[in-house]
User: What shape does this take?
Amino acid sequence: MTATTETSKPAAALPDPTPEALHSAVITWFGANARDLPWRRPEAGAWGVMVSEFMLQQTPVARVLPVYEQWLARWPRPSDLAAEAPGEAVRAWGRLGYPRRALRLHGAAQAITERHNGEVPSEHGQLISLPGIGEYTAAAVASFAYGRRHAVLDTNVRRVFARAATGVEYPPNATTAAERALARTLLPDDEVTAARWAAASMELGALVCTAKSPECGRCPIAGQCAWRLAGKPAHVGAPRRGQTYAGTDRQVRGKLLAVLRDASTPVPQSQLDAVWHEPVQRARALDGLVADGLVEPMADGVYRLPLT
Assistant: This one.
């Protein structure tokens, strides 16, 4: 199972743990250590799972929890969200960041209402055909909401697989064909175990096999981990991408959207101008929001969240 990647060289002659051994250890650990998260409860349903997957992209659980609860209280079904203007989804998204996710979720809710009688579909092919749904989200919803057998490859899972099976500290910056092939190799044969494995390996990456400070002493597969057994070789591939925020267009976009979210009526240009001192960057950020469909310009130089 140990394989080379384009970013580093694995250690030679390391034990090659069987998938079954990994499944048993990680799933048993998950049963004792899984967090009680609202989207994991039966009452969340497929819609709750889908909402959580949109919100959790590049956003920590602690920030998602209050927004998730408010969202589901207001829009407990896809049809409830579909009946609202897309700007209301942007408003309710608050400060989660990457607000285009709100528009995509609104678009998915409309498609579910129109094509699937308001019920989140269970088939991967139907899920991936919805607006804003990619390979990962389709697999996650099918697996977590319906117990289907799919390889669910988020950042946490990719890191666990890179270390345990491939012997490198970090996966490549973008998911590769080799990673997908490895995930399929590791996927349990039966649906129930596969769905449990998907959730368990993700939780292991989130809580124990973390990016900066992995706690190998708590890891249920430390004795089988190729990276640990190789002496934890340092990452030698492409530099890890850091995320900056202060002073970026993304920060300016957030400030502009905050004004529009808090306003009950359209906002004049002068009010938006007050949020950022640099006019060229401010104009670029506002133009980007308009191009992304997050803001609608109106006559006389006023702006609002989108109604259509």
